[in-house]
Amino acid sequence: MTRPAGGSAPGGGAGSGEPPPVLTFRRSARSPGVLVALATVYAALGAALVILRAAPWIIALFVLPTLPALFGAATGATAGLVVAPNRIAWHTGRRTGKVRVGQIDHVRLDRRWDLSARATLVMTDGSRLRLPSDCLPRFAVLADALERAGVKVERHHFAVF
Prior knowledge:
This protein is of the alpha+beta class. It contains 4 helices and 9 strands.
């Protein structure tokens, strides 16, 4: 869920002394896509076990990579990002973070060859802080929100490392 500027969101706006967020993004592990994917994988593995008489240990090997998604869906894990004119805050699982916009020199948005996305905050002191990928919205939405918050954005398409 992405909320553009002007939407009310916790932690900003009237009465709190902070400007309203430019972007509020939230993602849930209980999204329909995740639930459908898990159901499809488990149905296919169940069919392989029953119809094809696949060895249970082979089925177990295919189940293992799905366990993090199953755990996230069972616990209702969320990830999110808030971009405001004075701060950028994020949360994912048990990790949270917040940075003042004045500490950020620019944000580097990378698309890698495996089509994964990576956002790195490059601080004014030269240090780098990588945002967790599961809290990132689409790059176009993120770049627009960062620019409206006064943060310089560098886009790098298909970076190797």
